[in-house]
Amino acid sequence: MIGIALGVLLVAWLPRLISFPALTLLLALLLLLCLLPSCRIFLSSGGRIQIAGLLFGVVYASGWGYLNLSQRMPMDMSAQEISVSGTVTGLPQNRPAMIRFSFDVDHYSPTLPGTDLKHLQLSWYHPEGEIVPGQQWQLKVRLKPPRGLMNPGGSDYETRLFAEQINARGYLLSARLIRGPGESGAQQIAYLRYRIAQWLSRLSLTDSSEATIRALLLGDKQGLKDDQWRILRQTGTVHLVVISGLHIAIACLIGYWLGSSVQWLAGRILPGQADIRAYRIVPALLLASSYALLAGFSIPTQRALIMALSMLLPGLFNRHLGIWTRYQLALVVVLLLQPLSFYQPGFWLSFAAVGALLLSTAANPVSHRLKAIVTTQWSVFLGLFPLLLFWLGQVALIAPLVNIVAIPLLTFILIPGVVLGLLLCLLNAELGSALLNGLLNQFWLLLQVCAPSDGQAVLFSRPALLPVLLGGLAALLLNLPRWMGVGFFALLMLTVLIFPPEQPVDQGGFRATVADVGQGLAVLIETNSKSVLFDTGAAYRGRSTARFTLIPMLESRNISQLDRLIISHKDNDHAGGYADLAETLTVNGLDSGSPAIRRRLPAQPCTPGDSWEWDGVRFSYIQPARLKQTNENNRSCVLLVQSENCSILIPGDIESSVEQQILNEHPGLHVNWLVAAHHGSRFSSSVEWLNGLRPDWVLFSSGFDNPYGHPAREIIDRLQLLKLNWLNTSDRGAVIIQSSADHCLTESYRDQKKRYWSAG
């Protein structure tokens, strides 16, 4: 089984799928190992099984990859308008003036070359109808490939879409309902979940209570507010509200207890019924499976249910399997169902938590109940500690103490209380709603009391892979029997996570990251001890791209404050992320070229001619003092960053007239990197500007297939005519440039993280 898991993981790590001829050869070798007894001469039975498992894992995962690539819209294809008919699946996500939903395709036209669309993610802006699971629609949609933004530290949305088998994304142009939801069919469970959600919305519940019940009962997290997520993270109790293995385990325990009660009664009435395992195991698995279906059978619930099945089914069929064999079986089944689980934090956290529990129970058996609870929480905390820092960048240090109290309360008070309250709502809606509101208000009040203020007792760190591996080894050693004598040594090993070795920029050099923020601009410049952010990306419908691009990137670099934030001008695609950044980070200085920004925010003007030096790197504003053509774009700050060997120029959205003024005022100016003005607009990046600066690289920050056509075709033609290199964030993800004493290095993040499903 380990061989199968390794084979699946190997394919998930490949930058390119194995070719069909090579797969055919591997399949032949697999058959040879399985069928020919002569192989036993060269390999032991165990070795042959593991090699066969490895080959099977590689062939299976490669086939899964080829199948999903054949259904996905080509990643370099521009947006297409098509007519599509099919069925709404899953719960729709309701947002201000928009509904997002999943759609299974029955038929579409015109056909797209090289693809066979099956599953879409669609948005309906200002919807004119209700989206219900199981409905059949005839839609006209505008589709784009399922691309994601690629930045250091950011979530890999593109991988998530591929893992969920989303073949394309788009929005509705027109819609015609063909048939409403049926009483039967594949979407019957989803329709039931929708009806329950609608019923909850009609009760007299507070927003907090309704969101919590939807999360606990239906696995629908969209109603939880930012403050609630903050409390859950600070107390290490996200797993209490978000459906996880804990909830499936509770369902199993309740079913097991009910089955035991039935078994006890049967034993009193019918002789010989007292020791039939089916009485306990079948109700446990039925209740866990029903709960997983009610929660939408999402990937986390699938993972938890598979774990429960692997642990309980062997006993039902009187098959003796060791506990670690069952653990491996669950691991393999999860990977076969979802070969890209390797890239999901929940996969690692789930199996690490269960592994820590099993290891702790086997190595340190205790009979005292309270001591067992404390030991269990400590073991799980240690097991998850390295992974939480690696995947999430933070660990709530008080989590073991909070969970010692919170998990029993959830199991014996909250969940039974919610079930009782919902049943009471069927008889008396007002009384049941009052009970639910009171119960859930007390739950959140308790967590709020436990939550430390302003991030206290929360460890923030983004360790590299090697410290995480050492931390995982330390957690393993600390869960081994005490006679091993390695406890103190293991605790010392954990310090590599608490105090990870930093990788500062060399003195006298700088690192600049042109972030992939879609159609917008954000450039992070780091010196040995300082950091500057030029622009903040855009905001759409109240949420900025900074939340899932810039802020995670800053956290991954362990940057908690910006020494200077420059907002070049007031356009949304440059200034939209300011509010989220200011709420999350300390901003020591704010500059802007826009009078409108300076009236609204405590910003200073980026005065032409001003300059300063940090860590041997010189920063200068070089925009003209008197503009020939005054408009908001031409008011942009123009920042020149120079080390001894390398330089980058960031001109905001200036037009060609301002470019000419800068050339006249700074004759002989040469830069290594030029961020193209106005994302590559045809009104900027003139031939004189490009020929005068002669940059080694021109960097475009634009959205894929954006409606403005950036970068313009004539700009690309100019670069080709002048034989200049260029990179575009929409194609290559974030562009990372490094200035040091001996080189000026240019890299793209998408190339660093290249996998077989990645664009580019």
UniProtKB/TrEMBL annotation:
The residue ranges of the Metallo-beta-lactamase domain are 516-587
Provide the primary localization. membrane
Alphabetical list of CDD domains matching this protein:
ComA-like_MBL-fold
Which intervals hold domain DUF4131?
20-176
Superkingdom, natural source: Bacteria
Q: Which UniProt keywords apply?
A: Cell membrane, Membrane, Transmembrane, Transmembrane helix
Gene3D superfamilies recorded = Ribonuclease Z/Hydroxyacylglutathione hydrolase-like
Q: Which InterPro entries match?
A: ComA-like_MBL (IPR035681), ComEC_N (IPR004477), Competence_ComEC/Rec2 (IPR004797), Competence_DNA_uptake (IPR052159), DUF4131 (IPR025405), Metallo-B-lactamas (IPR001279), RibonucZ/Hydroxyglut_hydro (IPR036866)
Residues of the ComEC/Rec2-related protein domain: 216-480
Q: Where in or outside the cell is it found?
A: Cell membrane
Transmembrane ranges, per UniProt, are 20-43, 49-67, 238-258, 278-300, 321-340, 346-366, 378-399, 405-427, 457-478
Matching entries from Pfam families are given as: Competence, DUF4131, Lactamase_B
Bilayer disposition of the protein: Multi-pass membrane protein
Recorded protein name is: DNA internalization-related competence protein ComEC/Rec2
Q: What is the lineage of its organism?
A: Bacteria, Pseudomonadati, Pseudomonadota, Gammaproteobacteria, Oceanospirillales
